[in-house]
Amino acid sequence: QVQLLESGGGLVQAGGSLRLSCAASGRTFSRYAMGWFRRAPGKEREFVAAINWSGGNTYYADSVKGRSTISRDNAKNSVYLQMNSLKPEDTAVYYCAARLLDIATPAEEYDYWGQGTQVTVSS
Questions:
Q1: Which of 52, 54, 101, 106 has the highest CB neighbour count under 10 A?
Q2: Are 96 and 71 in contact (CB under 8 A)?
Q3: For residues 103 and 51, is the Cβ–Cβ distance under 8 A?
Q4: Is 34:97 a contact under the CB 8 Å cutoff?
């Protein structure tokens, strides 16, 4: 069982940056691949980024590639999403998720989810 808690969301102007954090409970965090997803108002949940158990493999959605960096610290049971050059279309609730084995992009492949953190980008 893994429990996830996101933090770091907020209101930022377009062009600004935010760093989202996700703290995980449990002793086996390093066994899990982690993903970030988001749900914008009136839209479906979409994949943002993922990182494998060691941090050696990452994958990004085209919409955030080059502007975002996912990373993890297994000693701190945490995963991060650094987002730069934020755009109004990045406004969404951001969720972190965990799954065993390797990274994946479909949300249904993830077993554990956090409650989400709101990111609002003003123009």
A1: 52
A2: no
A3: yes
A4: yes
**Distance from chain centroid for Cα 57:** 15
Measured CA to CA, the distance from residue 97 to residue 112 in angstroms comes to 5
User: CA–CA distance from 120 to each of 18, 81, 87, 98, 117 (Å)?
Assistant: 10, 15, 9, 24, 10
What tens-digit pLDDT sequence spans the chain (123 residues)? Answer: 899 999 999 999 999 999 999 999 977 899 999 999 999 999 999 999 999 999 999 999 999 999 999 999 999 999 999 999 999 999 999 999 999 979 999 999 999 999 999 999 999
How far, in Å, CA of 104 to CA of 91, rounded?
23
Residue whose token pair is 């954090």: 21
9 in Cβ contact with 118 (< 8 Å): yes
What token pair was written down for 65?
């590639």
- For residue 17, the one-letter residue type is S
Across the beta sheet with 4-7, what order do the strands follow?
A: 4-7, 18-24, 78-83, 68-73
